[in-house]
Amino acid sequence: MRRIIMETLLLYITDTLPMRALMGLRFEGVRYAMGTLGVFFTIWVLLAPLLKNRRIRKPMPKKRLHGQIKMELFNSLRTICVFIALDILVFDMAEVGVFKTYRDVADYGWLWFGLSIPLAIILHDAYFYWTHRAMHHKKLYKLFHLTHHRSHNPTPFTAYSFAIGEAVVMYGFVPILMVSIPMHTGAMSIVLLAMIFKNAVGHCGYELFPKGTTKTPILRLNTTVTHHDMHHEKASGNYGFYFTYWDKWMGTEHANYEARFEAVTEKSTASKPARFGTTA
After folding, report:
1. How many CB atoms lie within 10 A of CB 111?
2. What proportion of the chain, given as a percentage, has pLDDT over 90?
3. Residue 19, SS3?
4. With 70 as the cut, is the pLDDT of residue 63 above it?
5. Does pTM surpass 0.90?
6. φ and ψ at residue 184, rounded to 5 degrees
7. How far does the chain reach from its first CA to its final CA, in angstroms?
8. Using an 8 Å Cβ cutoff, are 121 and 242 in contact?
9. Reported confidence tier of residue 82, pLDDT bands at 50, 70, 90
10. DSSP class of residue 184?
11. pLDDT digits over 112-121, tens only?
């Protein structure tokens, strides 16, 4: 029995583990590149001249910016390594049927395939709000979230600039979702891609939503770029990821958020962003 266990373990280490790690690297690397590099080159390079009046805050000096991006890329590489390690664990657990994932759409039908994506996003938004808010607690902040907030004026690469603890927390939603509801592997991939694109856009520093968004009943439920940028600026409040309703319900939305958004979307004020007072 002991010999069988040792041979099985050796086979896992030499064969299965490298394959799992390669799968994780391929997925996490491509996902990261599509999200952060895609947003960086689209917003910061290609569209920057057209969006110059939508810059939320004054750009940093180049030397400081380059230093921050180097820090963010280092932290992002570490985050990707954490995600790959957790992917391996998830792959192994999937093999023994722990998760409710499936590959054949016919198992639950196209209707559930479509509904599962927005449902997962709504669940992720709730998970993000409460874990994010918890990491701002004075007893948890330095250990979990301070690294992310070293990017006071964020860039798209801030998206994955996490301490190891925060990276684990951010990944934690994936297994929770997979044991909660049936998720087609394709639908899960769409949700994970939505996460990184929303994350990178939220840190891009340019307001992309149209003027009047915060005054429109449906659109105002979406977190704008200004919404999360103010979170980095003040290091508090505006904890939501996709939607604003948790912040509104819990009273954690910045009191001057809507005024700030309207100011940013006014061409006359975009080149010299107005300064506003502290939050409520």
Report:
1. 8
2. 77
3. helix
4. yes
5. no
6. -65, 145
7. 65
8. yes
9. very high
10. E
11. 999 999 999 9
d(CA 224, CA 216): 13
- The region, left, alpha or beta by phi > 0 then psi within -120 to 50, assigned to residue 111 is alpha
Which range has the worst mean pLDDT, 11-15, 74-78, 192-196, 227-231? Answer: 11-15
Tokens of 68: 């921050």
Residue 168 and residue 128 in contact, taking contact as beta carbons nearer than 8 Å: no
Span 141-157, pLDDT tens digits: 999 999 999 999 999 99
Count of helices and strands (H, E) across the chain = 14, 2
At residue 98's C-alpha, the angle toward residues 92 and 104, to 5°, is: 90
Q: Which residues, 6 or more positions from 114, have their beta carbon under 8 angstroms from its beta carbon?
A: none
Does 221 or 276 have the greater pLDDT score?
221
Token readout for 236 is 């508090």
Alpha-carbon distance of 227 to 238, in angstroms, equals 6
3-state secondary structure of 101: strand
Residue 212 per-residue DSSP state: T
Taking residues 86-101, what's their average pLDDT? 82
Report d(CA 188, CA 31) in Å as an integer: 13
Residue with structure tokens 């080159």?
41
Q: Six-digit token pair at 179? A: 């044991």
Encoded tokens for 114? 């479509």
- Residue 221: what residue type? L
Q: What is the secondary structure of 75-95 as a DSSP string?
A: HHHHHHHHHHHHHHHHHHHHH
